[in-house]
Specification:
CATH topology of the largest domain: Alpha-Beta Plaits
Shape: globular
Number of helices: 5
Largest sheet: 2 strands, antiparallel
Helix content: 10-25%
Structural class: alpha+beta
Strand content: 15-25%
Strand order of the largest sheet: 1-8
Number of domains: 2
CATH class of the largest domain: Alpha Beta
Order of helices and strands: EHHEEHEEHEEHE
Number of strands: 8
CATH architecture of the largest domain: 2-Layer Sandwich
């Protein structure tokens, strides 16, 4: 299965992946209208060490045996066709999934409902928006053995 992978040695820490993700999942067709003057809630986020000598993007790994699915008290997280998804109508925002994820890939959205990378399968990008928008090709969408 194809997944998002990060080559941290190429990451500039520019945060463009976050903006492209937030825009792709906004449901709007104009990036300025979707993001200007607003706090963004991307499904990927850039982390770094002190001084930002090393930066890398963090997103869902779509684990083989995801602990977030097992720990969700509302049954809002499921895995289908290799993709871990959140049913927004079932999520109660208890943060349990965020606490158990070993990668720190889940976070609450603007409305308190949990969100995570779902590989842009629900929008019209064709590929994950973070991959398309990464200027240094530090984020790739590929299948690895």
């Amino acid at each position: 299965m194809k997944r998002v992978y990060v080559n941290e040695e190429w990451c500039l820490g520019c945060h463009l992946c976050e903006y492209n993700c937030a825009f792709a999942n906004s449901g709007l067709g104009d990036m300025t209208r979707a993001l200007k003057g607003k706090k963004i809630f991307p499904r990927i986020h850039v982390e770094g060490d002190e001084g930002n000598k090393i930066t890398f993007a963090v997103s869902c790994r779509h684990c083989e045996d995801p602990i977030c699915v097992k720990s969700c008290i509302a049954g809002a997280i499921s895995k289908a066709d290799g993709v871990v998804k959140i049913d927004r109508d079932k999520c109660v925002g208890c943060l349990t999934c965020m606490l158990v994820c070993p990668y720190g890939a889940l976070m609450p959205g603007e409305d308190g409902i949990m969100q995570k990378c779902e590989l842009c399968l629900n929008n019209s990008c064709g590929a994950p928006a973070c991959v398309i928008g990464c200027p240094n090709k530090a984020i790739v969408y590929e299948e690895r053995g």
